[in-house]
Design brief:
This protein is mostly helical. It is 62% helix and 3% strand. α3 crosses α5, α4 packs across α5 and α9 packs across α11.
């Protein structure tokens, strides 16, 4: 595994653009040279910017190393909470000790994992903000991680209410008021619920 990964940088060709801009100043003017130097320094700073990956634990036992590698494989494919990852590794028949070691040392940002999981859920079904947070807690995220993810996932909760209302009508019949109450029960505000039901036409 590589110790570092470098931030990708698009070459902008600032120096060439400045050289052919048709300025009245001499090509070697102090102003132009300073601008070129500043642009070059900024580009070099971005090129040299490094994002350090978590250090691979040293002195792992054979079973810990296997659990660690499996944790990395899972995290590269989907989002997990700390506790959820432990349970998944236990399901893979790793011991609780090895699974916990792997989750503790995998280098995951659990807030980031919660946000990814929130977006995964929103890609398949509709949620209210509180309903989504509750689902993330069920997945093993802390309440703080879940609340932050639900608050920052970028969802339009009126739109989510409309989707949820329609999903209910696709499987059973509701009156307008009963469907509003159901959406409120699901965690939508009454205003969001009224909006969602109104979009269904009932």
């Amino acid at each position: 595994m590589k110790a570092y990964r470098f931030a990708a940088v698009a070459a902008l060709g600032v120096a060439l653009a400045l050289g052919g801009c048709g300025s009245d100043e001499p090509a070697g003017s102090a102003t132009q040279q300073e601008t070129q130097q500043e642009s070059q320094e900024e580009t070099e700073q971005v090129v040299q910017q490094e994002v350090q990956e978590p250090a691979r634990p040293e002195g792992m036992t054979a079973s810990q190393e296997q659990a660690y590698e499996k944790a990395q494989q899972y995290l590269s494919a989907m989002a997990f909470s700390h506790d959820g990852l432990i349970k998944q590794l236990e399901f893979e028949q790793f011991s609780t000790e090895d699974a916990t070691f792997a989750a503790d040392n995998c280098g995951a940002d659990w807030n980031e994992q919660a946000l990814k999981k929130a977006k995964d859920y929103l890609g398949t079904m509709a949620f209210s903000q509180t309903g989504l947070a509750d689902q993330l807690v069920f997945e093993g995220f802390t309440q703080e991680q879940a609340d932050a993810a639900a608050a920052n996932c970028g969802a339009d909760w009126n739109e989510q209410a409309a989707k949820k209302a329609q999903s209910y009508l696709d499987t059973m019949a509701f009156s307008h008021g009963a469907l509003v109450d159901q959406l409120v029960y699901e965690g939508f505000t009454r205003e969001q619920a009224e909006y969602g039901v109104s979009q269904t036409g009932i």
